[in-house]
Amino acid sequence: MADVSSIDTLEYEAQFGDYVELLKPRVMRLVVFTALVGMLAAPTPVHPVIAMASILCIAIGAGASGALNMWWDRDIDAVMKRTQGRPIPSGRVHPREALAIGLGLSGLSVMMLAVFANLAAAGWLAFTIFFYVVIYSMGLKRLTPQNIVIGGAAGAFPPLLGWVVATGSISLEPLLLVALILIWTPPHFWALALWRNEDYKAAGVPMLPVMRGERVTRRTIFAYSLLLAPVALAPSFTQIGGGLYFGVSLVLNAILLVGAWRLLRRQEADRDADNFRAEKQFFGFTIVYLFLHFVMLLVESTLRALDMTTFALPVWF
After folding, report:
1. DSSP letter, residue 10
2. CB half-sphere exposure, 74, CA atoms < 13 A
3. How many domains does the chain divide into?
4. pTM greater than 0.85
5. How confident is the model over 128-171, as pLDDT tens digits?
């Protein structure tokens, strides 16, 4: 693991793009999209100005979390090939700048969300930032192979945030969306960890493949995929789902389970021969899987707004 003091004494010359990268824009896009879907799926309409301002606040909060995560993880980021090019270990942004930006944007995003939306949404945003930075990054990530199981909650909260912006309260529907992302996160990241295992091992991060081995990881990915399928289908039978969502989800989950079964049946020689091709494909598919589920929720919401609902399913929840 890299020496933090050696990283802190590098010569830093940041450009504007480096500060943007510090905010983890790819992660921010996912946060913004799922929060927007949660907001639009809610039964209470939101004024467009309030909606845009609230989404901006949530995006800033997500970026603040990314900056604080990069500040804290600068030592292991310098070791892992996947993260060596990040702004701090590559010598482009000073850690003190990252810390100041993260703290400043955290406070700004929470305060402004309280102004534009409501105190409940601001409180949830503050808790999400705290959970990701303190509970996950500073605590769980380096302590337990279950880090991503619990820590994934931070990435699962955005649709709940969007819902609370619209309604000021919590109900079953956004909790199902939280559960969808929460259960999706472990197989998604464990597939990545299978072919980035040496990186995590060198950095001393106790990901499941490092601590328990590939076979256990593959079995656990399959188990979580089995659990994920009914959770992903459950919104079909609530006010935010519908027949179109159900049909697409059914296909996506069938593909997911086939992919998880392929990973389960893989042997060491297989993955060596094709350089973890199946693991990379599964990882890539899980991104599409989550994106399309939320796209279909957005489609269902749009059809309801236009009074053009798809074929109805019984509402169980």
Report:
1. S
2. 26
3. 2
4. yes
5. 999 999 999 999 888 888 888 888 888 899 999 999 999 999 99
